[in-house]
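One-letter codes give the sequence; the fold follows as tokens. An example follows:
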Amino acid sequence: MAERAWKACYGVLLVLRLLCAITGTGYIHPDEWFQSGEAIAGIHSSTSLLRTWEFDAASPSRSLASLHLFQFPLVAWVHLNYRFGVSASSYSLFLAQRATSFFTSLTLDFVAARLVAPSTRQRLQTYKTLCILGSSHAVLSLCTRPFSNGAEAALLALCLLLTRAVVDLSHAESRAYVPVWVARQRWIRYCSALFGLGAAGLFVRFTFVAFALPCAAYVAVAGTRLCRRQSILSTAALYAYLLLETLPSFVFVVLLHICTDSMLYRGKWFSSPLLLAPLNLLRYNLDPTNLAEHGTHPRWLHVVVNAPIVLGASVWLYGALKISLWAVGRKVERRKKVKGKAKEIDVDAAVQLTMRKIYLATVLVPIALLSVQPHQEPRFLLPTVLPSTLLFAEACFGEAHRRMQMGRRTRRLLLSLYLLQHAVLTILFSFLHHGAVLPTLFNINNALSGRGSAGWLPSSDHTGPASPTASLHIIFWRTFMPPRHLILPLQPRGSSQGGGQTRYPTITDHGSMPARTLAAWLRSTSRTLSFSPNQSREELEAEDDNGRDIAHSRQLVVAPAWALADLERSLDMGGEQRETNLVRLAAFGPQVDLDHLPEVTTVWRREAGWASLKDAASIQLVEFLDVKQAASVRREPPPLASVHTQS
């Protein structure tokens, strides 16, 4: 009965993970999109998208081959829509990437089930471990997003599974006689697979080396045991021979990535100089000036803040307790050995003891190495979730809590803290954190593609296709960077952008520009000047001076409600008499920005009630209108508490 209940609980958690993947519009970090879908869509479409510095063809720091490997369904979906003559909607592109990440995250579940300690209660222990893993917000929120860290975590999980096979091989002589040559052949197979996974992980993120280091160290030591001979020279020669047998898999995967990257970046399979994306990224990160552009952090941040956030405060507390008791146990064990009272353990226990040491090293060694770098983000520690969960689940439900003298009350306290923290963080990062950005992009994409019935962009409006001079300028302000492939309709390679009934606006991201500066910018460019989303302001002004008709242009501003109040005040300070400033067209929510909670509270307090809170914690799509434009617009917009209309 208990096993059935835990199995049902795991099934519920799987459904919850899928829902977080396909319905969670929380926006955690721009790398979620700009290091995955934005780069892939830019290659397979003629639509002008934003290519970040990592994908500079002169010196790329990210492997496009690796992206295509882990986001192949996205590529297939885009080309399938091309084949039927349609442009994939932004929501379908969103689903393709999230679904791929969801299935990639199942690798962690598969490996966790295989690594659970064998016992008479193995199935029950397996479901308990899977429930602990499945309830982690790192799995529910981070692994279900197209971060490269999720692929890195999946590859590390497979490395741990292969390492377990090598550990079993090392203890095979205790179970039954295994010929040495058979053990060597198995070691070569396992090591070849590890080298192949290591090469793939290296091109996903060069930090994969730090996570795989404990596994590689143990496998290397296990190989030396299989090569022991009478002389050191013959042992070294045999070991070198075995290593040469395993290298082809590493070389093959590396060459495959290099050639594919060369084709995708430079249009030919081989190019000079050799294109090594991980090496370029390593060089970039070794330059302190580059890291300063992305933000520097204290070197203790991973240990004190990031690890408790990603792994869970209870897991981190348990880890400190585990290390302390291990240090005490070492002293007791040494005393027993001196007195001849050391207790012999069976082979299965020896295997699990070795694996626990590897799990612990896989958590501590990468954190120590990554702490050397001053740029530290919580998601960098995502691969440590599986080994830490295996240790924590065994401490709570396995035989380890009896040896550690963990009482029932302590165990319940740790589990309660674990579940409470991960539940709160799952809701925050899956649904609330900048959660209105993606719905805004979906709405704009549907309006531009003619799929939706967005009232703010009617087909008969002055920006319609009938007017060749009509233009649309969408300005993002005080939001995360908007991924262009989720805004602009994608067109196949070789087609002209803007053909047919599809509208291609200018996309401008002003980031955290001060309100006064943006107000001045809106006054000076109160018309759309270009259809290209990547042109400079000078190019836009030059194009406008060449005779573009600005009478039918529109400027739309996408910004949080709390920021628009400041923008309205800045527009009032211009000293000009205007009939209309900002007109609300649509609102999307919820939008929770942890850096600006006081501003949201201030807007909410202006008018009591939950309706005002809903408006305050939202992203507004508003139109900026000057006197000339206001005279030509005869629609009455709905009022908004935080965005004022003046007459």
